[in-house]
Design a protein that fits this description.
With 285 residues, the protein is α/β, with parallel strands linked by helices. The chain has 11 helices and 6 strands. The protein is globular.
């Protein structure tokens, strides 16, 4: 997706902690929010997550955008030429949309990190992939994940595959604000609440994509860009990952949905542009 050259970026919505890491992974990732949200869905105390996993101490994901991002990520033209500025542009656009769509929307920071990071959910490493942490309402991502999405998961990649990842994580933030993540019940299996939670985040990502141009940051979507998002959704389906890693598919252990389901619900959001269409909890999966 191409950014409008004159669009003004807001690096203040991103905290750059790259090169300042330390400690151990807990879970998460685009394949889902894994332990970070599963503990919450199961009725546990997310503030105890790190202790449950490895006895680590809860850390803060604090920090401010460094001068490099502030100086180098000013406009859509910068987003068209720099990877980190492009992600800032997606963050700005996604939050601009949801701020107008959800009453009382609260801005959530995205934190760039390398190696490892302390969060309100405990310590995490790059190995967990992108994740949303409900206790501190923040998104965390090592930008190297986008290469992993291609090399490990077999996705085509591309800018709008990245947009899908960011919009999916902000979908979890919307769920958190609406109380979905506090409703209890997670489990595993093709009909589980965990799967329905992930599919709704995919649908919310599609809803944003339907309105992305209206936020003023982006030019109209092309068919190729939509295909990049759908390809990324397919790459992180439970069935595809299980087939690649285990050689067989076990629906009883799914936590995020099949490739077809993830594509389907992104498409539902994109085609309707309406968050009310994303009722994965009442739908037949």
């Amino acid at each position: 997706m191409t950014f409008r050259r004159g669009a003004r970026l807001d690096p203040g919505q991103v905290r750059d902690m790259r090169g300042r890491g330390g400690a151990v992974a807990v879970g998460g990732g685009l394949g889902g929010i894994a332990l970070l949200v599963v503990v919450l869905l199961l009725g546990g105390n997310p503030s105890d997550l790190a202790g449950l996993i490895n006895g680590t101490t809860i850390g803060g994901g604090g920090g401010a955008p460094n001068s490099s991002l502030t100086e180098q990520c000013e406009t859509g033209a910068d987003a068209n030429t720099r990877d980190d500025c492009r992600i800032i542009g997606y963050v700005n656009s996604v939050q601009d949309y949801w701020a107008g769509a959800v009453d009382g929307y609260q801005l959530a920071p995205t934190t760039f990190f390398t190696g490892s990071i302390g969060t309100g959910c405990g310590q995490a490493t790059s190995a967990v992939g992108p994740f949303y942490c409900p206790p501190d309402a923040g998104i965390y991502i090592d930008l190297g994940f986008f290469e992993t999405l291609q090399t490990r998961f077999g996705a085509e990649g591309g800018p709008f595959a990245e947009a899908y990842v960011i919009a999916h994580e902000y979908g979890h933030h919307v769920q958190n604000l609406l109380g979905v993540l506090q409703s209890g019940g997670g489990g595993t299996g093709a009909e589980s609440r965990a799967v329905r939670t992930e599919l709704q985040a995919d649908c919310y990502a599609g809803v944003w994509a339907a309105h992305a141009v209206d936020t003023g940051y982006l030019l109209p979507l092309t068919d190729q860009q939509v295909a990049q998002a759908l390809d990324a959704a397919e790459a992180v389906g439970d069935d595809r990952i299980q087939e690649q890693t285990q050689g067989q598919v076990n629906r009883e252990t799914w936590t995020h949905g099949s490739s077809d389901q993830r594509q389907q619900w992104f498409r539902v959001g994109l085609d309707t542009g309406d968050g009310n269409s994303c009722d994965t909890f009442g739908a037949d999966l």
